[in-house]
Amino acid sequence: MDFLLTDKRITMFKWWFFILLLTTGTMLHAQQASDILKAPKTVLAGVYADPHIVVFGNKFYIYPTTDGSEGWMSDYFTCWSSKDLVKWKNEGTILNLKKDLTWATERAWAPAIAQKNGKYYYYYSADVNIGVAVSDQPTGPFKDPLGKPLIPKGSFKGQMIDPMVFVDDDGSAYLYFGQGNCNMVKLNEDMISCDLSKVVVITPQGYNEGPFVFKRKGKYYLTWSEYDTRDPRYSVAYATSDSPMGPFVKAVGDPVLKGKGLVQGAGHHSLVQVPGRDEWYIVYHRFRIPDGNGYNRETCISPMRFDDHGDIQPVDVFEQVKSVKIK
User: Of these residues, 75, 144, 162, 209, which one is catalytic?
Assistant: First the structure.
């Protein structure tokens, strides 16, 4: 009799345990659905990565990598514009590798843009080379002035990708680039050539890719992405210097941008200052929500702030961006 009673208790326990598991699973699913609804909004419709943001005139522009293919095999670049950082317009394709280049057909990655001499200079990765294109308008179309890469693959250690150009107050322009190694070289006045024998390696500790340089209150900031873009830990760190050529001293502490909760793989960023104000925003990609990964990423914007010493404060990836007008 005691055996039968114990057996019944075991059976009842199994049923209660099953019900508990079912209830817990339902609650977790509901919580996940709720979290997804609360996720910060993306700014570009679709999957786009490696966004480069800039201000030209009274508009913001974003130049991203077209995402969504395993191995990142896109063959074209687009441009997006906005008057308020919230609503974005797709300006269409501005450079098509298969149509506009003779030396590369795929792997169109991580562009950047700079304005000088009354023209717009567009720097990009194509087949693991770095190219440059020129246009009279920020929305293109852009044309290849060289008929060859600006920096061919294999020129230096690491991959020849992720170009970024910083134009200083005196008009001098500097090109930063590289995966695995962070390289830097001063561009010639024409913005489409440089002396490769003068390339300097400035790789900071933890650097992987995606360099971006900006200047604030006389201080130069070198920012970059750590880990791999397919890694949920992908994040952004920074260093500072008194010169655009370094040496750069890495900031102490945690990354200034990293994922949290359902936001994963937050990195490969760029920064923009609202003209006339000490107001800054960081644009970056994350794994698509839901079900994203290193090949399916989406573009977001978050406010970025500094303390009284000029140190970058940790970015809240859940803070929504409000409408910003350029006066």
Answer: 209
